[in-house]
Design goal:
- This protein has four helices and two strands.
- By secondary structure, the chain is mostly helical.
- A hairpin with a 2-residue loop joins β1 and β2.
- The two termini are about 15 Å apart.
- The C terminus is likely disordered.
């Protein structure tokens, strides 16, 4: 994986909660000019702190949340462009079997390793 400069550890549940929270904010009209305002990023960090009381590593900050969303979006874009697989906002990568989940996780793991090595 790429180096984790802020020391944050993200579980799949925390990432899902972040994306769900931001989706709710966007649907309710709290997104301005294509991005979230700082107050929303702070609210996202507060939401995670309330929902996940025993986070591993430091508590997530607004900047950590912003960085994690960028990472999630980068992974989605890389999956689509480099794997030839489909993604849509309704079904995601549409992984419905354990074998497909394993393939996806292996692909993401290899890509993160490549990214980490290429940074040095």
């Amino acid at each position: 994986m790429p180096p984790n400069k802020d020391g944050a550890h993200w579980t799949e549940e925390e990432k899902e909660a972040l994306v769900s929270f931001l989706t709710e904010q966007k649907i309710s009209g709290k997104m301005g000019n294509g991005s979230f305002k700082p107050v929303i990023w702070n609210a996202a960090a507060d939401h995670l702190a309330e929902k996940f009381l025993n986070q591993k590593g430091p508590m997530k900050t607004a900047e950590m949340c912003k960085g994690k969303l960028k990472t999630v979006l980068r992974d989605i874009n890389m999956w689509c462009t480099r794997s030839g697989k489909h993604w849509d906002n309704l079904n995601g990568v549409n992984i419905i079997t354990e074998d497909k989940e394993k393939d996806y996780q292996e692909w993401i793991g290899v890509w993160h390793l490549f990214y980490f090595v290429s940074q040095y």
